[in-house]
């Protein structure tokens, strides 16, 4: 897919990976729209080079109206990059259904809402790319990631199911699984983040993968290898491996972090 001249919408484009992808798409000649909740941040990212529209992904109607605004202003949407997400660590000693539900609302239902806003016209035109940003955290269970990881695993499954279902429709579905990327979301993390990369580097990997029409884009390479290998580890072995580093009780848990 040559990105030059394409109309692209980045959902969750006001910061982090989404903002970097939006800038990278502009530099590769795409016409770009970005959306998120914070209009000021959107305007700053856009710097007059993008269409910047405020919308909350948990509000399906507002995403549908943003999508039709983009089509009216820029033409049919060729590519949507779904980057909006919520992350907060869970504590088993203080299980917070509010935190859990928020992950489901933003990460899973939000992604579904954005897909609903672009899919019917793409199917009608028999053309378009839906690129969903999940995470390697969706590959295996990780302590603290009970909510985030569950929604990332669900996104991976949803995107794969959709890819298979629309395989003959002309619409393509790409799954993006980053390792650690330095963004607002990871700024508060207190745990080690091996192989962490900058958002600009992530954006280049994503746009390179989109241009090569990759089915999945997983980066950086060391994390991709590690987490792909982790998928092959038997459940009992994976559980034993990680339970050794698990704290014996709630008192030792430090769950203030926020990725
Ligand atoms: N950073 C990492 O290490 C990492 C690793 C693996 C995967 N990922 C994934 O990469 C994607 C981007 O993450 P990031 O690190 O770039 O995070 P980020 O800097 O916090 O960006 C998150 C984006 O989502 C938007 N957003 C959040 N809630 C929203 C809502 N309810 N409605 C609309 N937009 C909303 C935010 O904008 P507003 O606040 O303005 O709404 C922001 O633009 C996410 O899917 C994340 O899970 C990140």
Task: Give an overview in words.
This protein has a single domain (7-252), classed as Rossmann fold. Residues 250-259 have low confidence and may be disordered. The strands form 2 sheets. A 7-stranded parallel sheet has the order 3-2-1-4-5-6-9, with helices on both faces. It has 9 helices and 9 strands. It is α/β, with parallel strands linked by helices. Strand 7 (181-182), helix 6 and strand 8 (197-198) form a beta-alpha-beta unit. The radius of gyration is 18 Å and the shape is globular. Helix 1 packs across helix 7 (199-211), helix 3 (60-74) packs parallel to helix 4 (97-125) and helix 4 (97-125) runs parallel beside helix 5. The structure holds NADP nicotinamide-adenine-dinucleotide phosphate. Residues 12-18, 36-38, 41, 56-58, 83-86, 106, 110, 133, 135, 178, 180-181, 183-186 line the site of NADP nicotinamide-adenine-dinucleotide phosphate.
């Amino acid at each position: 897919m040559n990105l030059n001249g394409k109309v692209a919408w980045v959902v969750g484009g006001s910061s982090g990976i989404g903002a970097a992808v939006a800038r990278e798409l502009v530099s590769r000649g795409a016409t770009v729209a970005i959306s998120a909740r914070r209009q000021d941040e959107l305007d700053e990212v856009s710097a007059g080079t993008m269409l910047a529209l405020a919308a909350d992904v948990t509000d399906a109607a507002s995403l549908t109206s943003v999508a039709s605004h983009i089509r009216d202003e820029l033409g049919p949407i060729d590519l949507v990059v779904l980057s909006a997400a919520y992350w907060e660590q869970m504590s088993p000693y203080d299980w917070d259904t509010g935190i859990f539900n928020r992950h489901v609302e933003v990460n899973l239902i939000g992604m579904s809402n954005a897909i609903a806003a672009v899919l019917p016209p793409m199917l009608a035109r028999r053309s378009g790319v839906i690129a969903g940003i999940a995470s390697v955290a969706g590959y295996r269970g990780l302590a603290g990631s009970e909510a985030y990881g569950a929604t990332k695993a669900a996104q991976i499954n949803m995107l794969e199911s959709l890819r298979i279902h629309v395989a003959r429709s002309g619409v393509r579905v790409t799954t993006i699984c980053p390792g650690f990327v330095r963004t607002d979301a990871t700024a508060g993390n207190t745990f080690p983040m091996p192989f962490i990369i900058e958002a600009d580097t992530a954006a280049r990997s994503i746009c390179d993968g989109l241009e090569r029409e990759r089915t999945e884009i997983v980066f950086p390479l060391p994390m991709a290898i590690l987490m792909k290998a982790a998928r092959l580890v038997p459940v009992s072995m994976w559980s034993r491996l990680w339970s050794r580093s698990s704290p014996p009780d709630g008192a030792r848990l430090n769950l203030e972090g926020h990725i």
